[in-house]
Structure formats: structure tokens, C-alpha cells
Write a structure and sequence with these properties.
The complex is a heterotrimer of chains A (about 160), B (about 400) and C (about 600).
Chain A lengths: L2 H13 L6 H12 L4 H11 L3 H8 L13 E6 L2 H5 L2 H12 L12 E6 L11 E3 L2 E3 L4 H13 L3
Helix pairs in contact in A: 1-2, 1-3, 2-3, 3-4, 6-7
Chain B lengths: L20 H10 L2 H11 L11 H10 L6 E6 L8 H8 L1 H15 L3 E6 L7 H17 L5 E6 L9 H8 L23 E5 H13 L1 H6 L1 E2 L2 E2 L1 E8 L5 E6 L2 E2 H8 L4 E6 L5 E4 L6 E3 L8 E3 L4 E6 L4 H15 L5 H18 L7 H15 L3 H16 L1 H5 L1
Parallel strand pairs in B: 1-2, 1-4, 2-3, 7-14, 12-13
Antiparallel strand pairs in B: 5-6, 7-8, 9-12, 10-11, 10-14
Helix pairs in contact in B: 1-5, 2-3, 5-6, 5-8, 11-12, 11-14, 12-13, 12-14, 13-14
Chain C lengths: L3 E6 L2 E6 L4 H7 L25 E2 L17 E4 L3 H17 L14 H8 L18 E2 L5 E4 L8 H9 L6 E3 L6 E3 L16 H5 L5 E3 L3 H9 L4 E6 L20 H11 L3 E4 H24 L10 E2 L4 H10 L13 H17 L6 E7 L3 H7 L13 E4 H10 L21 H4 L6 H15 L19 E7 L14 E8 L1 H12 L7 E5 L17 H16 L10 H11 L5 H7 L10
Parallel strand pairs in C: 1-4, 10-11, 10-13, 12-17, 13-14, 16-17
Antiparallel strand pairs in C: 1-2, 3-4, 5-6, 6-9, 7-8, 15-16
Helix pairs in contact in C: 8-10, 8-14
Classes of the chains: A alpha+beta (about 160), B alpha/beta (about 400), C alpha/beta (about 600).
């Protein structure tokens, strides 16, 4: 049993084999592995006795259940109206410049992925962004460089 | 009737101490269920998610269904652009929400409650689970059997629609269901289910605490009580404010504007854009026989000053809807794409300005025919922006 | 007792049962409401919104297919608001759809095209969305082509694949403007659990899912003077083809079809029913041999129940979903493939034709047959046994292209050899037919008497119930079969793979124990096959079924073992059922496949 398989069997024993467990299990895999692979979706389909296509169709509906290769730290910059008004483009440019990747891309070392996302619910402290589950608000190009810098040094 | 009737009044009920939740819970559990429902009905509390369905009636309908199991779901999938009040409620007064859920469970006969928390608020999961543990322990102590679980969303605005939310909880794509049947008789796992917005539940707590009269005394006819407003955009004081319903938008702008407010988006991207010339006649509340226009609202208020291009604003909304539509029904899936591509075609001069009229008609068709509130409400912002800022769309 | 509801539709009062939808209520008044995502075989989706109607006093327009009636409802199906909205929606669908109709295989049989024509959507102003998206056409499958640019996302195919077939090769993926009908990780359908049954093709309102057609290849073969082109026609084609060519569902057009095929230029028009009869002798013998091995010899390597192997959709299904049961499948090839193997051996020898110069074409009610003919195992004649498989629909296209006025054709007879058949062969086209044909023969082999049913009609195995069971008691067998005296032969029949799943699960769990099971992948059996005329519905399939059994009753011979050409085949070529030669040409093996 490889690590994905044992992760999934752990999640299945935690949440159960009913269809209602599908999202929590998918989320559990994404939390550990950052994205879903063909392999992990097939393992989940087997465990819950669901068609693999159903698992894929369901997962692809949700923006946070990525199934393309993602980095260790997924940066999601809010692009909805207030963040847009308050300068999210500058934030994006600063990140792109720093990491040398475009939106939707992952750094070659597999550390960072850069995405845009819809309203994060921090409009009063725009612009906002997420790095994995951590929230950063009222970010400026300077602040964002600092934040990414700390993440770059992280080795977890 | 004088305009002073519609003045802005700040209130502090929601975030005020929640240390009395044990008391409120025990007291409520001693009351007759019908008595609680009746007081909710007489308070005239309406759903604070945006749709405005009378809360007491929802509980009553669910309680009346014959079923072995019923559920209460707290809708914390706060995704409407410009809305962030539920996050604050869950951070600051989670026990009020949990108490309200338990009382609802007592009233409708549910022993299980769920909080559908949007994936973007994942950081809230842990503190909220701690609050749940504390709460459940107390329930145990007083011999009341009620459990609450958090169900995490995963980044899908449409899951705030109650039937999409339940589809999501059942492990499916978050696609809204055909209605009827409504969740009150056929909800989560086919059982009668109350789905209430976070803020709605906190208001029921206020009502349990102070009684229906105190709540009803606030606000105006058809729009009783207070409301949390999420205020953002071009304002020097963005944030969350509890205000009485029934204020005029002019008062609101005077208080929160930056002196150059050109328009206010009321109710988020799926709400209406009100231009400066209509501030005075616009009253913030639910639909009713008020003078002027009354706007239902989930509490999002976004202010735009004269430096903002309304074309960019509309473009941003439509981009949002195009991505966040579940995609199952034609008017919403294709309509959103056509509206977005259409305004660009006009702006670039590829389509004549009169094409905007066709797009307004299209947004009307979406309003009449889309399967759920998402597609139905795109017309709100679309027509209010295009009609009021025609020049900005064309030139 | 269900409550009654009073309402009016377009001012006409009516009273209907509670839970009736607006669409059903309107049907009672013969008021037509257009639909696209709605299909009588499937659950209600309510997603295309073409069927919206107006409820007086209500601002929003409900979808007629998904909205139940309520007391006092006043419905308008043709108000200005309804017309304008509906027109707008059709326009939206067209803007999302590659509406280049003249380049579409479904031109002339497309529900969207019909609606566009009815509503005269002439000035299409909306932006053409396919231009802004990168669509690919999936042509890897030998059976089915999927073209997303023609998809209107009604999800009929997804519901078909899940509800009728229980396969779910197709799914809905993504959301918003990216929402599309796809497969697991967007793989080609040839690489997923697809059984090639073609039910999705049969239920697709547009040209998004079509059969891979081999019409031009067949025309070229016919035109090649060197080649001897042999055609075989499956049982269900003769009761379906008429629907494409001016006849009502349930019309039997066997003679006209033969006549048309001769006019198209085929060198020999032969009948798959012939090898259906042959299948019965091979499979019947296999059944009896297995029964003996299990009951008398107690052979642990012989497996029961024996499952029929005529339906290639079912074969691929079991290979994917229940590979542990492959030993239960009859080793008999399907009638199509038996025919193919014999055409390039027996037929070539008898007619003295070099098999290299034979092109073997089959007309099938089925898209999975295209895949089957393409399987690497199907070369036992030394050549590809069946060169081209075309569906009932493709044959209709060829007949139209040839300018043949089908309705006026005379009735002609099949050529020989391999053109004779019995009623037992023809009922292969209906669910339960293979079972019935096998029982007619096996019972007689064992007892020396005809099956004890009036007119040989074994009615318990017939019908449209998803899973059916029958028990045949054997009394006073011939001495060779004395071990079967008093035995009760338990049989089961399933059609539609979702029912096959139920059947297999009941076997797997040990809840049921059978000796012989028949499974057909498609609803109703081959008569409801994925290559049959579109549209399909329970009513249409019922009529086709009645036609099949009428065809059987009209045959002078009704039992496979009475087929004189089959008798001759064994005498002159194969020796006896399950002989070594028969095994080489008429039997096959199966491969386990991935379930996920």
C-alpha cells in the first residue's frame, strides 16, 4: 500500500463509505497532496464503489479540488470586484515577477502555484489572498514579496 | 410620511455578549415548540441570506412534515461578492449560532445539525469545532441530544443555493434541484430540512432572548429587525455594521460614502446597482408597500466613486457569474457567457450599441427561466448597470 | 387513492392525478410543449428550459417537465412571454452549438434543428461560442464519435449511461462556462468503461454523439468488381428499418429490406438469423455439457450459470465490471461473428470464391457490433471475419442515397447459402429471445419432445420487465440425459445493463442461483439497440417487440435445430456442435478489463 492508498483508507474509515463522504475524502486527499490524481480518484471510486467518472465529475465541479499538478503552496489571489478595485493586479504582477510563473502555473521546484479565485469574503480588507488555508488581507506588492519570501524559506 | 422615518440607525445586538447562551438554550428548551414558532412568526423575521423567506414559517413547515428524521443546516457558504458578515458572526459569536441551531432542532424535531462552511473559511473550522465541542458537552449535561457537524465546501459559490448545498453535502456536484419539492419537505437525504443563513440564526437568538416584540419594534413595515451590512469599496470606513432595516440609501451614503459616491451595489453581484440620482428614493429592506424602491439584500453594500468604470464593474460580475454558474441550465450557462462577451463586443465596436437592448431582454429571459436564483438574479445587476450607465458601456 | 387536481391549460379545464407534471397534463389535452432534455426513458432533469410555460400570476416561468400541477393552476403554453423566452433559449442553445447543419451527420434528424426551424430562428445575433472554445472530436472508438461542439449539455447521454446502463462512462464535468459532458479525466471513450452500446447515441438530441459510420467503405466495396460483397442482416433490423423509411414503428419490412439490399448491389444477401440458429445449437450443447459436468462429473472447473454471449455490449460490460465471471460466459461467438467466420471459410468453399476477395458486411441494430468486429480475436477465418458493420440507421441512409423508393419495393427472399432461418433465430432480436430459442431446442434434445408451451411460445421469458425468471422442469428425459430427470432448470433474463448489474449482484451475493442467464445490453434487447432508428421510447420498443414475435409466428420453422441449412452445415463442414472445427471458428475467449 502506498501513501495515497493508506491516506484514502484512513479517510474512508474516518468518514465512512457512503456517498456523503465523497467530498470530505476528496478534501482530505487535497489537504495532504494538494491535488487529485487519476490514481487517487480511482482509489476513492473503488473505496466508495462509485463510477470513477462520477468522482471526476464531482471533483471537477469544485474550484478547490484541483486535479492538475499543484505546488506545495497554492496562492489564490481574489479577483472579485473589491479586490480588483483595490489593486489585485499589482499583487499578481509582484508574485509573477518574484516566482517567474504565470497565473495557472507552478514553479519548477514544485513549491508554489499561482491561481486567481472568486470572492474570498474579505472585501473590507481588499486585496486579499490565500496561501493554502492561510488568509492575507490588505496586501500590497511590498507585503506580498515579504510573505512569499517567508514561504520560500519554509521547509515543511 | 417623512424621510426621517427611514433614517440610518446603528444597533448592537448581534455581536453583543453571548455569555448567556446556556441560559437561552435551557430556557428555550422548556418552552412549547409551537410557542417558539409563533413568536418567530410574529417577529416577522425574514431570511438574511438574501431570499427573505419568513423564518418562522420555514420552521413550521418543516416541523409539520411527517418524517422519522429531520435536519437543520446552517448555511455558511457566504460567497456573494461583497458579503463577509457570516464569517465575522462565526468568529465572534459562534455559540449564538449553535444555540439557535439546537433550538431549531428542538422545534422541528431534528437531532442532527450541519454547518456548511465555505472552503475559503477553512481557517474557521478549528475554532468552530472547539465551540461545537463546548456546546455539545453542555447539551449532554442538560440531557438534550443534539449534535452538530461542520461540512466543508470546496470553492463553489452556487452551493450557497440551498438545494445545491444539499447536493454537495450528499457528495454530488452542487447543482440546484428542481423546486418543488422544497427542502422543508424534501431536503437533505430526502428528509425535511431547515436551511438557515448564519445571520438568520443569530437573529432568532435575539428573539429568543428579548422576545419577538423587541425585534419587531426595530425596522419598518415588511422589514423588521436589524441587519448586518458588509460595507466595502470606496468608503473610508469599510467593515461590518449592524443597522436597522428601512434606512434610505441617501442616509447610508452620507454615513459611509467618501463624498464622491457615484453608485452603490446593494445585495452583491446578484443585487442591484443604484445610481446617485436614486439614492434618496431607495429604501433598504425587503419588498413591500414602502414609498420608493425597497431592495432585498443579503447585506452587501459596495460603494463606487466617480473614478470607477461601471463597465469594469459589470465585467467583473459577469466574469464571476460565468464561472460560478453550475452550468446545468441553458439560460444561466449560456446566458452569462453571452452577456459577458456581448458587452465586450459592444465596447470594442463589433456590435452596435442597440445590442445592449437585446442583452437586457436576454437577462430578462434568464430571470424568468433560469432554474435557480443565480441565473434569475443576473438580470438585477446587468439591467441596473446597463440602463443607468449606458454611455460607459458603449464609449 | 390519489388525489385529483383541477387546473386549466390555455383556458381548457382538466382534472389530473396529483404529481402529474404540467407537461404530462398538457399531453392529455394534446397540447405539445417542446422539450429537449426530457426523455421518456430517463429521469426528469429540467435543465434545458425549452419547455417553460407561464403560470398566470407568477413572474417566473416554470419548466413544464419538472413542475407538478397544483390546484387552481392556470397555465399558458403559448403566451407572448413564453414564446419570447423559449425563442431566446433556443437562440442561446444555437449560439453554443456548432450549428453548421449541412456538415452534420444528424442533419435532418436533430431535435435542436427541428426546434430552430419551428421557431424560425433566422436572425441569430448572439456570439457564436464554439469559435471561442477549443473543442476536440473524439474519434478513437470504432463505434461512437463524440463531438463536444455539437453538444447542448442536456445530459441525456449521462443519464442514459447511468440510469439505463449503470455504466457511467459519461459524466458531467466542471461548472459554469467550462461545464461539459466528459469521461474520467477526459479520456477518449475508447479508453474508459464504455461498452459501446450506443444508447447515448440513441438518446442524443443532436449530433454530439453519433455512430462511427462506414457507409463510404461499404459503397467502395460494392463498387469494386473484384470483390464479392456479402451482407448479413441481424434479426432486429427488419422490424426497425421501416421507421427510417416511412413506416410506423412495429412494421415488418424483411422482404423489402432484402430487396433493397440486392438493389444496393450486394452480391449475396444473407441472414444473421442463420447463425442465430447455429448459435442455439452451439450454445445449447454447451449448456447441456456444462450441466452434465457440474451435476454428474462434479467438475470444479465448470461454471454455472452459463451466460449468453450474443450481446457485445454485455460482453464488454462483464469484462469491465465482473471479470471474475468471464468463465460463465458462453464461449460461443455472437451470431454476427459466427457468420463472419463461416463466410470466409464454409461459404467461400461452397461457392468456390477466394476468401481474400470476400468483403463481409453486417447490418446491425447495434454500435457495439462495430467494436466486436474490430476485436483482435475475430480473425479465425484467417481474415478479418466481419469487415464492416453498419447500423440500421446507416443502411437507411444508403437506401435513401441510392434513390430507392423503399415503400414501393417488392418483397424478396434471402439468398442461399446461409440465408435460411427459423422463428427461433428471429426472436434473438428481443429480450428473452435467445433464452426462448435455446429452450425450444435444448428441451427437445433432452426429452425428445417439444417444449410444453402453446405454439412453442415460452411466454414467461418474454416481456419488458428488467429482470425475469423462469423455471423449466424436465421430466422423462431421453436415456442419455437421465441425470436431468426431474431437474428444474432455473433461468433468468435481464436487459439494459443496469438490470444486468442487479442480476449479477444477486448471483454474486449468492441470493440467486441459476443455470442459464440471458443478458442483452440494450433495453428491450437488440430491438432497442444503439444502432436502431431514433427516436426510441418504451412505446416504440413495445411495438418492435410485437413485430418480432409476429415474425416468429409466421415462420414455417420455429426451432433452430430444424434449420435445414444448419443441418447441412454440420453434415458437410462442422461435423457436430462443439466439434473441434466448430470450436476453432465459432468460439472465442474474453479478456478482463479495468473497472475504473
Amino acid at each position: 500500500m502506498n501513501s495515497t492508498q493508506s491516506l484514502i483508507s484512513e479517510l474512508v474509515s474516518q468518514h465512512g463509505k457512503k456517498r456523503t463522504s465523497l467530498l470530505p475524502i476528496l478534501q482530505g486527499v487535497v489537504e495532504q497532496e494538494k491535488f487529485l490524481t487519476e490514481f487517487s480518484m480511482i482509489e476513492i471510486a473503488k473505496a466508495l464503489d462509485l463510477p470513477a467518472s462520477d468522482v471526476y465529475g464531482t471533483a471537477s465541479f469544485y474550484s478547490f479540488l484541483e486535479h492538475k499538478k499543484m505546488g506545495q503552496f497554492i496562492i489564490r489571489v481574489c479577483k472579485t470586484i473589491t479586490c480588483d478595485m483595490k489593486g489585485k493586479n499589482q499583487i499578481l504582477l509582484a508574485i509573477q515577477d518574484m516566482l517567474k510563473i504565470n497565473i495557472g502555473e507552478t514553479t519548477p521546484d514544485g513549491k508554489f502555484s499561482l491561481l486567481q479565485t472568486n470572492c474570498l469574503g474579505w472585501c473590507h480588507k481588499a486585496p486579499a489572498m490565500l496561501i493554502n488555508d492561510e488568509v492575507f488581507t490588505e496586501v500590497t506588492p511590498e507585503k506580498v514579496r515579504e510573505i512569499i519570501g517567508t514561504y520560500m524559506k519554509r521547509n515543511d | 410620511m417623512t424621510t426621517s422615518h427611514y433614517q440610518l440607525k446603528r444597533v448592537d445586538l448581534i455581536f453583543k455578549n453571548e455569555n448567556d447562551w446556556k441560559q437561552i438554550l435551557s430556557r428555550s428548551l422548556k418552552r412549547d415548540q409551537t410557542d417558539i414558532v409563533n413568536s418567530l412568526i410574529s417577529s416577522e423575521l425574514k431570511g438574511r441570506g438574501g431570499a427573505g423567506f419568513p423564518t418562522g414559517l420555514k420552521w413550521k413547515l418543516t416541523a409539520e412534515q411527517e418524517a422519522d428524521t429531520r435536519y437543520i443546516i446552517c448555511n455558511a457558504d457566504e460567497g456573494e461578492p461583497g458579503t463577509f458578515k457570516d464569517r465575522e458572526i462565526l468568529s465572534q459569536v459562534p455559540l449564538k449560532v449553535l444555540t439557535a441551531m439546537a433550538v431549531c432542532g428542538y422545534v422541528i424535531g431534528a437531532t442532527e445539525g450541519f454547518i456548511y462552511l465555505r472552503g475559503e473559511y477553512k481557517f474557521l473550522e478549528k475554532p468552530l469545532n472547539n465551540a461545537i465541542k463546548e456546546f455539545e458537552n453542555y447539551c449532554n449535561d442538560i440531557g438534550f441530544h443534539f449534535s452538530i457537524k461542520i461540512f466543508m465546501g470546496s470553492g463553489a459559490y452556487i452551493c450557497g443555493e440551498e438545494t445545491a448545498l444539499m447536493e454537495s453535502m450528499e457528495g454530488h456536484r452542487g447543482e440546484p434541484r428542481n423546486k418543488p419539492p422544497y427542502p422543508t419537505n424534501n431536503g437533505y437525504l430526502g428528509k425535511p430540512t431547515v436551511v438557515n443563513n448564519v445571520e438568520t440564526l443569530v437573529h432568532t437568538y435575539t428573539i429568543f432572548k428579548y422576545g419577538a416584540k423587541k425585534f419587531k419594534d426595530l425596522g419598518v413595515q415588511y422589514s423588521r429587525g436589524t441587519k448586518l451590512f458588509s460595507i466595502s469599496g470606496d468608503t473610508p470606513i469599510p467593515g461590518i455594521y449592524e443597522l436597522e432595516l428601512g434606512m434610505s440609501l441617501q442616509d447610508f451614503v452620507d454615513e459611509f460614502g467618501d463624498g464622491d459616491t457615484k453608485a452603490v451595489q446593494v445585495g452583491g453581484a446578484s443585487g442591484f446597482l443604484v445610481p446617485r440620482k436614486r439614492f434618496a428614493e431607495t429604501i433598504i429592506g425587503y419588498k413591500g408597500k414602502l414609498t420608493g424602491i425597497s431592495l432585498p439584500t443579503g447585506g452587501s453594500m459596495m460603494l463606487f466613486n466617480s473614478s470607477r468604470s461601471m463597465f469594469n464593474v459589470l465585467n467583473n460580475y459577469l466574469d464571476f457569474f460565468q464561472e460560478e454558474s453550475c452550468g446545468q441550465c441553458t439560460p444561466c450557462r449560456v446566458g452569462c457567457q453571452q452577456l459577458l462577451k456581448g458587452i465586450h463586443a459592444v465596447k470594442r465596436g463589433e456590435k452596435h450599441a442597440s445590442y445592449l437592448k437585446k442583452l437586457i431582454k436576454l437577462s430578462e429571459t434568464m430571470e424568468y427561466t433560469a432554474k435557480c436564483g443565480l441565473g434569475q438574479s443576473v438580470a438585477n445587476s446587468f439591467s441596473s448597470i446597463v440602463e443607468n450607465f449606458w454611455e460607459e458601456m458603449v464609449f | 387513492m390519489s388525489e385529483k387536481i383541477n387546473l386549466t391549460i390555455n383556458g381548457i379545464p382538466l382534472r389530473v392525478d396529483q404529481n402529474t407534471t404540467i407537461l404530462e397534463a398538457a399531453e392529455e389535452l394534446s397540447i405539445k410543449i417542446p422539450t429537449l432534455c426530457h426523455h421518456k426513458d430517463l429521469c426528469v432533469a429540467g435543465n434545458c428550459r425549452v419547455c417553460v410555460v407561464e403560470e398566470v400570476g407568477v413572474k417566473k416561468l416554470p419548466a413544464a417537465c419538472a413542475t407538478p400541477v397544483h390546484e387552481g393552476m392556470e397555465i399558458l403554453t403559448n403566451s407572448l412571454k413564453v414564446r419570447n423566452s423559449r425563442k431566446n433559449i433556443i437562440e442561446l442553445l444555437l449560439s453554443e452549438h456548432n450549428a453548421d447543419c449541412t456538415k452534420c451527420y444528424k442533419n435532418g434528424n436533430c431535435e435542436l434543428q427541428t426546434l430552430a426551424a419551428e421557431y424560425k430562428i433566422i436572425n441569430q445575433e448572439f456570439i457564436h461560442l464554439p469559435d471561442t472554445k477549443c473543442y476536440t472530436i473524439d474519434e478513437f472508438s470504432p463505434s461512437i464519435i463524440k463531438d463536444d461542439s455539437r453538444c447542448i449539455r442536456c445530459q441525456r447521454c449521462v443519464r442514459t449511461c447511468a440510469e439505463i446502463q449503470g455504466v457511467s462512462a459519461l459524466t458531467v464535468g466542471y461548472k459554469g462556462d467550462h461545464m461539459k459532458i466528459t469521461t474520467f479525466f477526459e479520456k477518449p471513450i475508447a479508453d474508459v468503461v464504455c461498452t459501446n452500446c450506443g444508447q447515448c447515441v440513441n438518446h442524443c438530441p443532436t449530433g454530439a454523439l453519433i455512430e462511427k459510420n462506414y457507409i463510404e467503405e461499404v459503397w467502395e466495396a460494392i463498387a469494386d468488381p473484384k470483390m464479392h460483397v456479402v451482407v448479413q442482416t441481424a434479426p432486429a433490423v427488419r422490424i426497425g428499418l421501416g421507421e427510417e423509411l416511412g413506416f410506423e414503428p412495429g412494421s415488418r419490412v424483411t422482404g423489402k429490406m432484402v430487396s433493397a439490399l440486392k438493389r444496393l448491389g450486394f452480391d449475396a444477401v444473407l441472414d444473421t438469423d442463420f447463425t442465430a440458429d447455429l448459435t442455439i445449437l452451439e450454445e445449447g450443447t454447451e449448456l447441456l455439457t456444462r450441466l452434465k459436468k457440474v451435476l454428474v462429473d462434479k467438475d470444479p472447473d465448470t461454471h454455472l450459470p452459463l451466460a449468453t454471449s450474443c450481446s457485445p455490449g454485455w460482453i464488454k460490460y462483464i469484462e469491465h465490471m465482473y471479470p471474475e465471471y468471464l468463465q460463465n460466459l458462453s464461449t460461443c461467438k455472437s451470431p454476427q461473428q459466427m457468420f463472419g467466420a463461416l463466410v470466409k471459410t464454409y461459404y467461400a468453399k461452397e461457392r468456390n470464391i477466394d476468401p481474400a476477395n470476400i468483403v463481409s458486411v453486417s447490418i446491425m441494430p447495434c454500435t457495439a457490433k462495430k467494436f466486436e468486429a474490430n476485436r483482435p480475436e475475430m480473425h479465425d477465418s484467417g481474415y478479418r471475419d466481419v469487415d464492416f458493420v453498419i447500423t440500421t440507421r446507416e443502411l437507411a441512409i444508403m437506401i435513401k442515397q441510392a434513390g430507392i423508393e423503399f415503400t414501393h419495393l417488392p418483397e424478396e427472399h434471402y439468398d442461399k447459402i446461409m440465408g435460411d432461418s427459423t422463428g427461433a433465430g428471429v426472436i434473438f432480436g428481443a429480450t428473452g429471445g435467445v433464452m426462448e430459442a435455446a429452450l425450444r431446442t435444448a428441451y427437445e434434445i433432452v426429452t425428445g419432445r417439444e417444449v410444453p408451451f402453446e405454439n412453442l411460445n415460452i411466454t414467461p421469458v418474454r416481456g419488458m420487465d428488467g429482470v425475469r425468471e423462469a423455471t423449466i422442469k424436465i421430466e422423462n428425459p431421453l436415456p442419455d440425459w437421465s441425470f436431468l430427470d426431474g431437474a428444474e432448470l432455473n433461468c433468468a433474463i435481464a436487459h439494459g445493463l443496469v438490470n444486468a448489474k442487479d442480476l449479477m449482484d444477486s448471483i454474486k451475493s449468492g441470493k440467486k442461483s441459476y443455470h442459464f442467464v440471458e443478458v442483452m445490453a440494450c433495453p428491450g434487447g437488440c430491438l432497442g439497440g444503439g444502432g436502431q432508428p431514433i427516436p426510441t421510447s418504451p412505446e416504440i420498443r413495445q411495438k418492435r417487440m410485437e413485430a418480432i414475435y409476429a415474425e416468429d409466428m409466421d415462420m414455417p420453422l420455429r426451432k433452430s435445430h430444424d434449420n435445414p441449412e444448419v443441418v447441412h452445415l454440420y453434415e458437410s463442414f462442422l461435423e457436430k456442435p462443439n466439434s473441434e472445427k466448430a470450436h476453432h471458428l465459432l468460439h472465442t475467449k474474453y479478456v478482463p478489463r479495468q473497472r475504473f
